[in-house]
Amino acid sequence: MDKRDLKSMNFEQVKAVMEELGEKAFRAKQIYEWMHTKLIDSFDEMTNLSKALRDKLSENFELTSLRVVDKRESAKDGTCKFLFELSDNRVIESVLMKYKHGNSVCISSQVGCRMGCRFCASTLGGLERNLTPAEMLDQIYKIQKMSGERVSNVVLMGTGEPLDNYDNVLQFIQLLTDENGLNISQRNITVSTCGLVNRIRDLANEELQITLAISLHAPNDKIRKEIMPIANKYTINEIIDAVTFYYNKTGRRISFEYSLVEGVNDSEENAKELIHVVRGLNCHVNLIPVNPIKERDFKQTQMQFVQNFKNILEKNRINVTIRREMGSDIDAACGQLRKSYMDEHTT
Ligand SMILES: C[S@@+](CC[C@H](N)C(=O)[O-])C[C@H]1O[C@@H](n2cnc3c(N)ncnc32)[C@H](O)[C@@H]1O
Ligand code: SF4
């Protein structure tokens, strides 16, 4: 029988397990603390439990942990990219970004992705599997332990489509924001999605205070279909309706991600079209010059045109920023480092 995943359980579930094992309830608190505040990697480190209980736990439960297979630090801005190996030997990546306001970690939510966006390295091998809540937490826990600094912000912008792994992502958010765990504020968590409309509505109904980021990348359905297959399922209008619902439910300002690709979505005409799409919403647009991947011949829009695109939006009173490229010297585009690692190790 497969061992049950203890770190993915919330406090109530750990309490139920203790009852099942005939243990006192306070043991649940101790075990939960070892996992989620002391961030230990093995049952043997739970030194205030008897050896008998630790043995019982390891016979029946799995305690996930990640092995670091690579770590690269940007000489430009201190951004650190990590490659972690999971217990089934699959590899994922996470990024630590240091800002004045605190440390932000970008985590993966799946191994691979099935959404097929043309510019994205994460989807080149399709979806391998979902990550468990514990495997998402482990990325943050490991980075916090290795860096010795508190992580204050978490963004789900690494490999994978978080809303395609909905239940695990929700449980992960519950554990991450638990006051008996790392106690990260919901407001400091961002979930980024390519626009799974039904799931955006489900998420709105959870009434969380997290930030929702929409990977829009196009001002109309025609261009969006060329670069994002999900656009064949949901139109931009449907996305806008869903995010309006999200905003009405949560009061949280919506972020739109817009990667500029030369000759594809970066003309002045495109900027004007984009204004009509987002006008009237309480939102923020992030412009990101696309990070070219070697498997596709997409080119980055030159900075002067990115600036011009931004000016057009600004003149129309749209909140807009150009996202700083973090760690551009270390294969920082999402999924790129993992992809180069897999290419080297699987041929
Ligand atoms: C990798 S995705 C993960 C979250 C989610 N699946 C999504 O699409 O929003 C995070 C962000 O990276 C962007 N992205 C992916 N490949 C990129 C590239 N080569 N250059 C710039 N941005 C990229 C995505 O469009 C998205 O906005
Ligand atoms: S951009 Fe997001 S949804 Fe699209 S393939 Fe990459 S990870 Fe998947």
Short description:
The protein has 347 residues and is an alpha/beta fold. It is built from 11 helices and 14 strands.
Structure commentary:
The chain has 347 residues and is an alpha/beta fold. The chain has two domains: 4-62, DNA polymerase, domain 1, CATH 1.10.150; 67-345, TIM Barrel (Alpha-Beta Barrel). It has eleven helices and 14 strands. The strands form three sheets. Strands 3-4-5-6-9-10-11-12-13-14 form a ten-stranded mixed sheet, with helices on both faces. Helix 1 crosses helix 2. The model has no long low-confidence stretch (mean pLDDT 94). Bound molecules: S-adenosylmethionine and iron/sulfur cluster.
- The quaternary organization reads as single chain
Secondary-structure content class: alpha/beta
Average pLDDT confidence is 94
CATH fold-level topology of the largest domain: TIM Barrel
Q: The biggest beta sheet, please? A: 10 strands, mixed
**Global Rg:** 21 Å
Query: How many helices?
Result: 11
Strand share of the residues? 15-25%
What sort of overall outline do the alpha carbons produce when their principal axes are compared? globular
Distance between the termini: 34 Å
The percentage helix is 25-40%
What's the order of the H and E elements? EHHHEEEEEEEHEHEHEHHEHEHEH
Number of domains: 2
CATH superfamily of the largest domain: Aldolase class I
What is the tally of beta strands? 14
Name given to the CATH architecture of the largest domain = Alpha-Beta Barrel
